[in-house]
UniProtKB/TrEMBL annotation:
This is Lysine-specific metallo-endopeptidase family protein. SUPFAM superfamilies: Metalloproteases ('zincins'), catalytic domain (SSF55486). GO terms for biological process: proteolysis. Pfam families: Aspzincin_M35 (PF14521). Coiled coil: none annotated. InterPro entries: Fungal_M35_metalloproteases (IPR050414), Lys_MEP (IPR029463), MetalloPept_cat_dom_sf (IPR024079).
Length: 378
């Protein structure tokens, strides 16, 4: 009888060689091989970064201990889940040297400690999470499919690990050749990633590029307001995502970039790039809720939210803006998403003030929400 394919597959990509005391960037790709859309709990996986000892790393057969912080948790929140459609993947690049020590040269092997992950087959709202994680036991995959039980599935993971080599600091740090198998080629000292068709992830790894967006917008929820207002907010959500995606795709050191973020410096450019990526991924992975309620707004406010909060309050003045273009509803949605997903601040408002900020205090411009709104054309 043929072996059943696992529903979740984790692939690790590594460059051939890394140097001691330098970053060891690996790309982790989590793929949904099932026929169902899944909401995967990020806890204990590389998708959440270094919050637990989630990796199995060994050198010459001896396990490397975890040196990072351990996070103690109780019940997850909706933000702890990531949506993965059938046949699609989520990726994250991590410098594993931030959590593990690689001071000794040698050949290392890396995989994932977890043998299973928890997924929901329904949207992870607070009532669903409360029912799933505080009442009864975890439901089996079959009952979750039929909508019974707690709708929690514990799915086995198929892990495709990788080898890599850590060399003395004086040696060239990266072998950029990407072999096609998980075993080193004869005569080659460089380690290899596993076999995979995701060349974008490999390219991002070896060139230090930001990983590409998935291109899948998460639908939003809207509370309050009239039917016309709700339709306008829904359109602004869609158009805000388009603005953010196009801004990330077109980001380069040109006159437009310097107008809103100042003189080019590699570190600042990378920061702007990372924040745009966070905004786009927020649109793609977070269940945002727009609440049309003037009572939650300060006088004169257009919209408001908090860092990490998927709820965005929409004020009456929001609807006086045009749907698209400068100072539009779409631009304001992007502005609020930059607060929620990229931790931006309100340093300055308005085009003239933001341009002056870029010219005199470009580091502040890279943290300013309006600067991202105007750069994206909103």
């Amino acid at each position: 009888m043929p072996k059943r394919e696992r529903d979740i597959e984790v692939t690790v990509y590594a460059s051939g060689e890394y140097s001691v005391d330098r970053p060891i960037n690996l790309v982790f790709e989590v793929s949904n091989r099932s026929k169902n859309p899944l909401y995967l709990l990020k806890w204990g996986t590389p998708l959440e970064g270094f919050k637990t000892d989630c990796l199995e790393i060994s050198r010459n057969g001896k396990r490397i201990p975890f040196g990072g912080k351990q996070t103690v948790r109780s019940v997850p929140s909706p933000m702890d889940f990531v949506f993965i459609p059938p046949g699609r993947s989520r990726t994250r690049k991590i410098d594993i040297a931030r959590g593990y020590s690689f001071l000794q040269k040698g050949r290392y092997r890396i995989g994932l400690r977890k043998k299973s992950v928890e997924c929901l087959l329904v949207k992870p709202t607070l009532p669903v999470i409360a029912r799933a994680y505080t009442v009864g036991t975890t439901a089996k995959h079959s009952s979750a499919k039929s909508g019974k039980g707690n709708c929690v599935s514990r799915l086995s993971i198929n892990v495709k690990g990788a080898h890599f080599l850590v060399v003395p600091l004086t040696k060239a740090p990266v072998n950029k050749r990407i072999p096609k198998t998980s075993q080193p080629e004869k005569g080659k000292t460089g380690a290899t990633p596993v076999k995979s068709t995701n060349r974008q992830a490999v390219a991002a790894l070896v060139s230090e590029q930001v990983l590409p967006a998935t291109g899948i917008l998460r639908p939003c929820s809207i509370q309050g307001g009239t039917a016309t207002q709700q339709a306008a907010v829904n359109d602004a959500h869609d158009n805000g995502y388009i603005l953010a995606s196009q801004a990330l795709k077109g980001l380069q050191n040109d006159a437009r970039y310097q107008l809103w973020f100042g003189v080019y410096l590699p570190a600042r450019f990378n920061k702007v790039q990372a924040k745009l990526q966070a905004i786009v991924r927020g649109f793609e992975e977070t269940d945002f809720v727009y609440i049309i309620d003037d009572n939650a707004c300060d006088p004169g406010a257009i919209a408001c939210t908090n860092p990490g909060d998927p709820r965005i309050n929409i004020c009456t003045t929001f609807f006086s803006r045009p749907p698209a273009g400068t100072n539009s509803m779409a631009g304001r949605v992007l502005h609020e998403h930059s607060h929620s997903s990229a931790d931006t601040l309100d340093v300055r408002y308005g085009q003239a003030a933001c341009q002056a900020l870029a010219a005199t205090r470009p580091d502040d411009a890279a943290n300013n929400a309006d600067s991202y709104e105007f750069y994206a054309g909103g």
